[in-house]
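Final report, results section. Input specification for complex C-07:
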Amino acid sequence: SQQGEEDPQALSIQEGENATMNCSYKTSINNLQWYRQNSGRGLVHLILIRSNEREKHSGRLRVTLDTSKKSSSLLITASRAADTASYFCATDRGGANNLFFGTGTRLTVIP
Amino acid sequence: KAGVTQTPRYLIKTRGQQVTLSCSPISGHRSVSWYQQTPGQGLQFLFEYFSETQRNKGNFPGRFSGRQFSNSRSEMNVSTLELGDSALYLCASWTGQGASDTQYFGPGTRLTVL
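Structure output:
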């Protein structure tokens, strides 16, 4: 079963704009990870945020985590056409050795 | 370091056949997990192997099985294929020890069952 959901399910923006995707989950976690998937390909790891962290940055990516609301957000600043992909959040449900994925957000960046 | 590799990348089979997929983890990683991705069910966990032992298992029928070798390479097998087994199969690796950590995925094997 899915751990949670991302919203929106689909997002279309112009190049240069910022994109924000949200993820909600259902159980306690040790960490939450964001992945990117280009059409039909493998998952590329973007960032991991631990349950005791509130915000993390990596290049143009900013991830926040609110464990009280069981939610996380991924912000991509100054988006590029190459950012067009599906984005998934995944959690470990408090220590499992496998990941539980959300439903994904399909981001389209229009040049 | 080389990334996670999966072979073959594409596979076409017919109903009733069986299939074996292979995954080579990142060097030094001892945990390999398998996931199935379909448009309807999304990404679902199949099973995880650590040091040649199945450590976790998802909710899939017994037709899905796997194993891990002493060099940490893993294979998964699906017997008596059904149309619904058509999916992208992804494997992921991490060190497998300590607190859960970043898992790195391979490019996947696209299985089509006719």
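The two ends of chain B are 37 Å apart (CA to CA). The interface with chain A takes residues 4, 6, 31, 33, 35, 42-45, 48, 50, 55-56, 58, 88, 90, 92, 96, 99-108, 110 of chain B (CB under 8 Å). This concludes the modelling results for the funded period.
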